[in-house]
């Protein structure tokens, strides 16, 4: 559209047909050249995206946090309900025939149950991340949530009640649940980053991620409530007697995980597509403007829509634009974004190895503080495990998330990630150094518990939160969800190494001291030293490769690498600007600006 000297805004068609409002009649003849010159000019921000970056915090932002965070809430619920569920499954399916001892789930079965969920998360990150950039964030978001609900319910049913069939079915549905949970990572982060303003974007995405802490708390609360109710209903059975109702209790715990996800399904489907996807990927700025006007009330949507409608007319009249897009598996992508993708994926991978290895010393803290399994029944044992997890969540996990929300837009992502890795390394080395000589026999010492809790706090304050945020800020719109999915998949591979590999490797070298069902390993002290070293490696990777994105718009982050706001880093016709003839129209061309998505929209 063209702005006259009186600041009125009218479509270019009217302006040209009315005569020489710009200069003289030759403007009519020079219109094609003027359009071409407009395409070569410097590109200003798309108005609706600029308005999003500058919008004040509104009710819809908090609503989006809850809607997007429910997937991560369900993720942590399903992950942390497994330890008490495994206690119940052991009592039900692995009790010795003579009833001389309580049943215990073999470590191989526990590892398989955890491992298949993490493998599913790897697949889900890659699959739904790629679909989010092709089919749209909103559409794929609903499918991901529906799979999450169905697989949570399926995990509880597990088809049958014989041991082999029930466990095989449980692993199948846990894998599908992992796919859904993994898919929720890139979609939640991308949606929140594209709705947020630049000033508080980090805090909003961190708030979405902090829903994991409340998922842990909910998992513990539900498990404690179900266990207490069944314990009372069955008349508080003796320790070595496991009533048949225990087979129902663990199924109910798993199926309740579907409730929060199901409750938010309607609101997820009612969300509009993000304006950045619609404008930068689908190239429909008018629709993006109208969609965002439905949810953010303080934007001047009428003025923006009028300008975008005129731009749409110009786009239809403009000459075709040569294609210069590049794909994910291209040298151009590698040159422009390979460093950032390596930084995000490697940091997430290195974080999740020590973070998910926390199960190494959970049992060392849990056992001295609670009665042994031979003195409590199945429900009481599950209750105690859930109680311990709730204490850790309240004491360290949730405070770490809250600290990240408060500091992420003040300190910055890069500094917070480096500080978190450094603190994790310090606390892991503090646990490892005197472990064999002191900590092994002093697990009830308050300092041991404090160091254990501070390891969680440091991770959630720093890299556990920042590795979720950075991939949603560093990449162009048409690659954003895919690259976040690749980074998240790398993280889940690290989680698999930490939760399964290090759990087995940390076993004592002396066969007589190895826990039942395990094989000799390298010992706890050496395992902790390696984990501390991995944290230092994460610090080094962050220092060398990770850029800062605090308080910069997503489009600025793209243009940092020579990109424009069209989402693929290309700028219209660069070769014509030097060929525009010296005419009255060419004098105007120096003041013409174009849209990143609509390269033939201009204003004077």
In a nutshell, what does this entry contain?
By secondary structure, this protein is mainly alpha-helical. It has 27 helices and two strands.
Helix-strand string: EEHHHHHHHHHHHHHHHHHHHHHHHHHHH
Uncertain regions spanning at least 5 consecutive residues? 1-44, 560-604
* SS strand fraction: under 5%
Percent range of helical residues: 55-70%
Number of helices: 27
What does this structure look like?
With 604 residues, this protein is an all-alpha fold. 67% of the residues lie in helices and 1% in strands. The chain contains 27 helices and two strands. A two-stranded antiparallel sheet has the order 1-2. Helix 16 runs antiparallel to helix 17 and helix 22 packs parallel to helix 23.
Task: Itemize the secondary structure elements and their pairings.
Blueprint: E1 2-3, E2 9-10, H1 12-17, H2 26-29, H3 31-40, H4 47-54, H5 59-80, H6 82-93, H7 107-134, H8 137-157, H9 163-195, H10 201-209, H11 211-233, H12 246-256, H13 258-263, H14 265-270, H15 275-280, H16 285-293, H17 301-317, H18 331-356, H19 359-369, H20 378-411, H21 413-432, H22 446-461, H23 463-469, H24 480-505, H25 524-545, H26 554-559, H27 584-589
Antiparallel strand pairs: 1-2
Helix pairs in contact: 5-9, 5-10, 5-11, 6-12, 6-20, 7-8, 7-9, 7-24, 8-9, 8-12, 9-10, 9-24, 10-20, 10-23, 11-12, 11-20, 16-17, 18-23, 18-24, 18-25, 20-21, 20-22, 21-22, 21-23, 21-25, 22-23
């Amino acid at each position: 559209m063209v702005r006259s000297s009186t600041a009125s805004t009218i479509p270019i068609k009217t302006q040209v047909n009315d005569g020489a409002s710009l200069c003289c009649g030759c403007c009519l003849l020079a219109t094609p050249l003027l359009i071409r010159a407009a395409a070569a000019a410097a590109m200003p921000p798309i108005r609706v995206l600029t308005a999003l970056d500058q919008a004040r915090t509104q009710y819809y932002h908090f609503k989006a946090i809850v809607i997007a965070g429910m997937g991560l809430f369900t993720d942590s619920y399903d992950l942390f309900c497994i330890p008490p569920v495994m206690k119940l499954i052991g009592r039900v399916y692995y009790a010795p025939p003579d009833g001389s001892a309580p049943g215990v789930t073999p470590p191989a079965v526990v590892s398989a149950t955890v491992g298949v969920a993490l493998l599913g998360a790897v697949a889900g990150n890659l699959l739904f991340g790629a679909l989010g950039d092709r089919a749209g964030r909103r559409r794929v978001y609903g499918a991901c949530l529906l799979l999450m609900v169905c697989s949570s319910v399926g995990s509880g049913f597990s088809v049958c009640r014989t041991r082999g069939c029930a466990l095989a079915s449980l692993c199948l549905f846990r894998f599908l649940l992992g796919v859904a949970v993994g898919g929720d990572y890139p979609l939640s982060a991308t949606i929140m980053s594209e709705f947020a303003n630049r000033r508080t974007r980090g805090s909003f995405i961190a708030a979405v991620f902090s829903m994991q802490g409340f998922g842990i708390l909910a998992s513990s609360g539900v498990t404690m409530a179900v266990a207490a109710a069944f314990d009372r209903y069955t008349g508080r059975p003796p320790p070595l007697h496991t009533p048949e109702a225990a087979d129902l209790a663990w199924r109910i715990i798993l199926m309740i995980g579907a409730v929060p996800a199901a409750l938010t399904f309607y609101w997820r489907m009612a969300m509009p597509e993000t304006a950045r996807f619609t404008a930068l990927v689908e190239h429909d700025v008018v629709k993006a403007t109208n969609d965002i006007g439905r949810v953010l009330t303080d934007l001047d949507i009428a003025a923006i829509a009028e300008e975008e409608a005129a731009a749409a007319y110009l786009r239809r009249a403009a000459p075709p634009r040569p294609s210069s897009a590049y794909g994910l598996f291209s040298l151009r992508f590698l040159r422009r974004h390979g460093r950032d993708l390596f930084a995000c994926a490697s940091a997430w991978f290195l974080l999740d190895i020590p973070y998910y290895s926390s199960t190494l010393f959970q049992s060392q803290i849990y056992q001295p503080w609670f009665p042994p399994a031979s003195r409590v029944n199945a429900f009481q044992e599950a209750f105690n495990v859930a109680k311990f997890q709730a204490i850790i969540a309240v004491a360290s996990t949730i405070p770490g998330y809250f600290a990240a929300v408060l500091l992420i837009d003040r300190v910055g992502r890069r500094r917070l990630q480096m500080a978190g890795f450094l603190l994790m390394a310090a606390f892991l080395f503090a646990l490892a150094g005197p472990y064999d000589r002191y900590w092994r026999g002093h697990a009830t010492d308050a300092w041991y518990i404090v160091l254990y809790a501070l390891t969680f706090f440091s991770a959630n304050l720093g890299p556990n939160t920042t590795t979720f945020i950075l991939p949603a800020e560093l990449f162009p719109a048409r690659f954003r969800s895919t690259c976040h999915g690749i980074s998240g998949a790398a993280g889940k591979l690290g989680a698999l190494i930490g939760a399964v590999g290090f759990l087995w490797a940390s076993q004592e070298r002396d066969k007589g001291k190895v826990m039942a069902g395990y094989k000799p390993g390298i010992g706890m002290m050496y395992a902790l030293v390696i984990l501390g070293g991995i944290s230092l490696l994460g610090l080094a990777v962050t220092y060398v490769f990770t850029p800062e994105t605090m308080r910069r718009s997503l489009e600025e982050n793209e243009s940092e690498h020579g990109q424009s706001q069209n989402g693929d880093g290309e700028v219209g016709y660069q070769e014509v600007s030097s060929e525009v003839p010296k005419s009255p129209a060419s004098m105007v061309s120096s003041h013409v600006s174009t849209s990143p998505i609509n390269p033939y929209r201009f204003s004077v």
